User: Fold these one by one.
Assistant:
Number 1:
Amino acid sequence: MPNQTPKLPRPDPRTNHFLARLDQEDYAELMSVAKIVPLKFRKRMLRQDEVIDAVYFPITCMFSLLVTNDGAPQMEMATIGNEGMVGASEALQMQGAIGLNLIQLPGTAVRIDANVFRQVSGNRMAMQRLIHQLVYALLRQVLYGAACNRIHSMEERCARWLLMTHDRAGQDTFPLTQEFLSHMLGVRRATVNVATGMLKKAGFIRYVRGQLTILDRAGLESASCDCYRAIVKVYEPLRPETPKAQG
């Protein structure tokens, strides 16, 4: 009998915090029109100002939201992992994407056609409230990031960005190139090399052939500014409640 590749377990959509916080009826209705799709590293998804064709709820992947100029990525404004959603607010308002959404960490996401999502969520007030809460949290993340880029050192900014990526990666090693990181931080590659070099010298990270590994999480947190903890605090109220153990 020929060897067969074992099937990987189906990702749980409720790993996404938005989907996990829906009541059973809303969740079932949304998932009846959804697909779980794989998304590849650096794939360009929703493009700035273009009409939204689909809404995404990350499960194991991570999006970067970048501002662009003449179609070229300029700087990252926010990261979105399984705590959030991509395109939902624009789909409801029938507006173009607020930025370029790029896959920063490959993985899976729940995908729903934008028109279908608008129809399903249009009369579901609880779902719309969750969307508004996440939009507010995303706005707070953008504001903290903008302030951070202005007042903190490149080493602190780099540590903050790596911590946020580590939170969403679910593992200590993830793909990352110096060129990609320079786009994320809006600086030249030489500047990124200096910042990552300092973090490597301190023993906090290892970087080999486009793969970055977090070696010392506590050390990396000590190198970051307070913006990282402030952003984490913004999203804490939006985490789904952990079921209580049955005694």
Number 2:
Amino acid sequence: MWLILGVVIIALILIKVVWVWCATSEHGSWDGEKEDIIKRANYLAKNVIVPPQTLVNGMPEILGDQFKGEWAIYTCSMSCAAFANIALLYPQNKEMSLKYIAKIIDIAMSEEIREYDTVRWGEDPLDGIYGDLSHISYYSHLAWMISAYKQIGGDKKYDFMYSTLCEAMNKRIRQSPILNVSTYPGEYIYIPDMLVAIVALANYSRQFNGEYDGTVRMWIERAKNEWLNKETGLLVSFLPPDDLLKGSYSALNCYYLTFIDEEFARDQYEKLKKYFLQNWPVLGFKEYYDRSCWFGVDVDAGPVILNLSSSGTGFALGPATYFQDSDVRKGLLKTAETVLTSLSWFNQSHYMLLNSVLVGDAIMLAMRTSVKWE
């Protein structure tokens, strides 16, 4: 009996090893990965480009309405980044990427998607765009999506909205003594949320004659001089700063910084690896650099198992790809395949364990295809 059980376990392990090898053997060249990347893009398009309420309802019910809305806007945001990257990597897919991004922008502009921000601020963000309330979460992600559309040659259909969003964000940022505004009333300032806004302003400036270069430079200089964790040198996770430095936030900070200041981003990525990279039991990034967490759950980090952060590991794939850190990138993709397991059928592919967490597939594809937006 025990012998049979042992043989079955060994057989299953061997099958998994062969599965992972087959699924990752082409990793390392854009030509080798193209088929799998396009299949994953097809899966995202089918599942993200749906009626807005369907997208919100598809987020895990356990999150509650607030986080379902946040996850929905993040799914839209990361999907647009992925489609823009694909257009840059594979120019023959440009028209399809433009079509998909435009449809996702329209979904993101819907009342159903805006609801998460409307509830927290007590006003619709589009109604309050000329006012003073922050709405930085909604404005920044929508502007970021439009910047992706423009980056790959999109027309002028969203230019007025893009300009209005960036003007609103810039006004709020410049009016703040610390150049940051809160995501929601009475909460910390979340640095990754602010970075989406700064990236959107930086992209707009590149596309429209440097209009917000001054704000972007001021923010980055303050970040380098005032907002670094004293022990690690990493950008803090929150303002006002406290001792909690989250791997998920630090990895996402590194990714967003690649769009703004490549030298600063590289320095942050090296520090991220120094303090958060873990090689056992699989290659990944920890959620906490200064303490162990064998099992925990965080709405931002996802499950934390044997110290490893689910979203932190996923977000770190972005800078690893951008900086062509091939050993870490391949290791992270192997980890994803080992833990999540890909399913492919017809012309689609996605991670099986992310079946009810669409944002995870969107994040992984955006990070895996991270390239420079000229």
Number 3:
Amino acid sequence: MYGSGQPEFTLILKNEEVVAQLFANIGLRLLEAYSNGDIEIEGDLQRFIRFGFLVESALPRMSIKEKAMLAVMSIRQRNRLSQSARNVSHHYDLGNDFFELWLDRRMIYSCAYFRRPDDDIETAQKQKLEHICAKLRLLPGDRLLDMGCGWGALAIHAARTHSANVVGVTLSQEQQRAAQTRIAELALGNRVEIRLQDYRQVPEDGSFDKIVSVGMFEHVGREHVLDYLSKTARLLKPGGSGVLHTIGRMIEGPVNPWIHKYIFPGLYIPTLGELANGMSKVGLNVVDVENLRMHYGYTLDRWAAAFDKHAEQVRQMFDERFVRMWRMYLHSSAGTFRYGYLNLWQITFTKGLANDFPLTREHIYARELSGDEESYLLSQQGRRSMV
């Protein structure tokens, strides 16, 4: 027992041999041991993560051997044009059937927007889509680029509720296939195009009125931060605006090695300073910054609960180790947003100065989701629940 009162969690070491390995690189080896079933954590996984942050300064430093191993892994995973698709496929091409089990009906795999802590995930994700579109100030006929469009939810919403013309790019074949199916069902082929394309390959004709990126920038890589921002500036019309929605941190530091190795190869989490400095170098002007840190904690809570509900189906798709690995990923991520170093930035920017920008944020909260999209989503609920 550590501390007093009722225990928040119990750590059970099931394999003596693994104990000696833990302290060489506890951030990697402890979570590997959980995935492999060598340790068990009974109770609240997020409070276990919180305890890790509380005692972090007292833990032994990583061995030189482990540092060298991680350095080699990081070099191999760098997001060169030839490597980025493999890094994305490792996570996002696990199968649409898998993600449909525990995401919302729209298949949105990024931080939702909660007006109340008890909002369900469908409501919160709907609110997020409109929150972003309002920040973009989308107008009928605007040409919008969605860099890292996922399964197409934002692109579809922007076209249906704001009459925007949208180009979405993704490196996931599974995402492109599902997005194109939904676009065809909604007869939106004249307004929405989903490309299997790296952001670096989008033609630079400066023809986009608005640019948005939701949950994709984390996969750009540290060495490509300025490349990405420069590309954004070249694609955006003078006076155009954009929203960058990304996980971030206040102080520079490495990504958790277990997440880097098993969940998101090539991941890099930027600081707010890096983003602001990079934007200043390429002519992008920061208009507004919002931190949705707790919103991501709530989002991950919903995902983790849905994942646990369907754990047996996931086990049949993959295996027990995969279930344990993803359960730890979802709960540990929620814990890191609540108790650790992770933030969620929504950065609104313009190309150059835009003096017509609203003086207040009132325009962000003015719109509601249109009824016809809601009717379509309700009609799809039964079909997806059969999966």
Number 4:
Amino acid sequence: MRCSSAALIATLSTIAFAQIAKAADLPRKAPIAPAPAVVASTWTGFYLGGNIGYSWGNADTDHSGTVNRVSNPGTGTQVTNPAFAIAGSSSEHPCGVIGGGQIGYNWQFSPKWVLGFEADIQASGERGSAAVVHPFSTTVCISATGPEACIVTSPATGTLATTYEAKINWFGTVRNRVGFLITDQLLLYATGGLAYGQVKVSSVTNSAVTILGGNTFVTATAASASKTNIGFAVGGGVEGKFWLPPPGRGNWNISTLT
């Protein structure tokens, strides 16, 4: 009986070890993957972009001059006459399509505040025109033997009618910005800085002079000038952004062994 009991115990032990070994080979469930890390949205960084829009404004032109030589209507000779001055101003309202690009940098220095720097350059189709008329009266030479030798003079009246066109060919700004975050994705900002641009003004002046007795003659003169003006720009607005996670973030693959 003792030998039989020993053999039975040994057999049971062998079965138990075999069951333990088999259990170790069973598939195990994979550990639960950690939750994706939450990446905080930030406005800090460089940016660039493009824009297109419509612009309008106001351009004031001052003009003045002195007329002291009038053509002899009979011979075309330029003769010195008593000088008369003209002066005035006109206001043009240029408008048109604009488009260009901008580049800048933002720094979010607190949870709710953003500082920035931005520069832009725009091509412009803005243009506007205006006309002014100057009446005058003077004395003209109707007979002369040379440029300074007038024989006969006559009173004359006339008008100088000038048409102006103002154009803004291009402009740009360099500005600082400060903004307050209404939400993580919405920025309310104010901006201000340097503005510069090329303005071109062209004109055509038609003069009509009527000499006592009814004789009238007309001349036309064209002129143009362009200049790069410097000023300042101020403004504000609301800006929004869409945040996209960088590659490798936001795409989680979880696999389980069974």
